[in-house]
Amino acid sequence: MALPRLLTAALCALAAAGCVPTLPESAHADALAQGIVWQLDNEHLNPHGDWNRLGVSELLVQWTAVDDVAFVAGTALPAPRVPDWVRIANEPWARDVIVGLAGYADEQKARAHVAELVERSLRLAAVRPPVHVTGWYFPVEVDPSWTDAASIAPQLERLPKPLWISVYDNRNIGGAALAQWLGSWLPGDVGVLLQDGCGVYARGPAAAREYADALSAKLGNKRVRIIAEAFRPKQGGGFRAATAAELAPQLEAYRGYRVYLFDGPHYVSDELVEGLLQQGAASK
Question: Structure pTM?
Fold first, then answer.
């Protein structure tokens, strides 16, 4: 259905002013997933996939600079290889984009250099890639084992909004305790992407859903989204793509939340998409 001209003009004016209107969280409740994560690296500069067949229309880019290399031009960092952002922006699974900022692949190094990464992130945001930006993601992940995590709150205040961080629970303190911990220090205008833990067998989909519900009760449902891990440990080390039979219960359990598959180019092949669709059809 075409939008009325006046409404279209109003939305364009808001976007030009930097105010991005958002759809209700339930707007795509019939989709298997709403977002796809892209963990950008030199081997995955040109993402392609059928992710829109699952209902995906939003791309979450893990970062636009990592380990002293940028993937957009115009910052102080070298950018030897830059993705075709214009092509990506025209993909149906990237109509909206949450742009990841600056990070380090090593978690401990990232946590030790938050102030530096914020400075880099501000430069990245100033030269944003040519996509429809619906938010920003600061790729320094938090969990309860990081005893000094609260110290990053003033730094998060400096970053552009809407802003998201990701959180996981490797101590298994439970959803209520995790929510209480986050609520004690996280700025009220920062959203949370909950890593479900299914990819490393930390918990099952039902338990992950309980975590999300506890976070929503504490932080508000508009501040909570779920990252569904689309991988599993591989025999001998490393990770493999989850099968449709493994991944489908995650997506079913998280109905009602905005769900982002981690990650598309590495783990969510066209064959897996087809398998998920067949699983969904068979369950109806």
Answer: 0.89
